[in-house]
From TrEMBL:
NCBIfam families: maf (TIGR00172). InterPro entries: ITPase-like_fam, Maf-like. Gene3D superfamilies: 3.90.950.10. Nucleoside triphosphate pyrophosphatase that hydrolyzes dTTP and UTP. May have a dual role in cell division arrest and in preventing the incorporation of modified nucleotides into cellular nucleic acids. This is dTTP/UTP pyrophosphatase. It comes from Paraburkholderia dinghuensis. Its EC number is 3.6.1.9. It holds the Pfam family Maf. The record marks R18, T87, Q171 as: Important for substrate specificity. Its cofactor is a divalent metal cation. CDD domains: Maf. It is an enzyme of class 3 (hydrolase).
């Protein structure tokens, strides 16, 4: 018989302010469950040779969920569901991660301008019993208009590209480059709300 227990909050295993804002938009209460100083969280995002963008983002999301669950068990935390997510950008079959420096950011944005690319976000929810629900995958297409080199350079100087897959955030100044989207705006931001809400309800979150 399924448990009827519901939970008033979740643990969010992400440092992304955008994901926090999107959960607040849903009315979901959360507490942060961030990596410990001894964890190499960035290593989880390394790509594997020949890996597709979809396989990559689902694998990384699952690895983040496993790490977050281990963090919860090791610490003095009350049991509650955990949410993790990962977003990547793909063009020409290549994964564009977070830029290493300004030159890398400029090169990524120059590659995207005048073309359509894919944004994929995977979402995982580990329920309070420690079971990871089937991972949801949101896929969206984003069309960048052609842009002058000076406009790309100004955007890079703003600092906004850093820490973001594909070197841009749709909710920020990069909106000036975006001609159209086909898919989930919140998914492009980093947390597709339709899929996330379904997972949270399955994990018996009260919101």
């Amino acid at each position: 018989m399924a448990s009827s227990v519901t939970y008033p909050y979740i643990y969010l295993a992400s440092q992304s302010p955008r994901r926090q804002e999107l959960l607040q938009q849903l009315g979901v209460r959360f507490e942060l469950l961030l990596p410990r100083p001894d964890e190499d969280a960035e290593a989880l995002e390394n790509t594997l040779p020949g890996e597709s963008a979809a396989d990559y983002v689902v694998r990384v999301c699952a690895a983040k969920a496993d790490a977050a669950r281990a963090r919860l068990v090791a610490g003095a935390h009350a049991h509650a569901p955990i949410l993790t997510a990962d977003t990547t950008v793909s063009i020409d079959g290549h994964i564009l991660g977070k830029p290493h420096d300004a030159a890398d950011a400029y090169a990524m944005l120059e590659r995207l301008c005048g073309r359509t690319h894919e944004v994929l976000t995977a979402v995982a929810v580990v329920d309070a019993e420690g079971v990871c629900l089937p991972i949801a995958l949101s896929r969206s297409l984003v069309r960048f208009a052609a842009a002058l080199p000076a406009a790309i350079a100004r955007y890079v100087v703003s600092g906004e590209p850093f820490g973001k897959a594909g070197a841009y955030g749709i909710q920020g100044r990069a909106a000036e480059f975006i001609e159209r989207i086909d898919g989930s705006y919140s998914g492009i931001m980093g947390l597709p709300l339709f899929e996330t809400a379904a997972l949270l309800r399955a994990a018996r979150i009260d919101f």
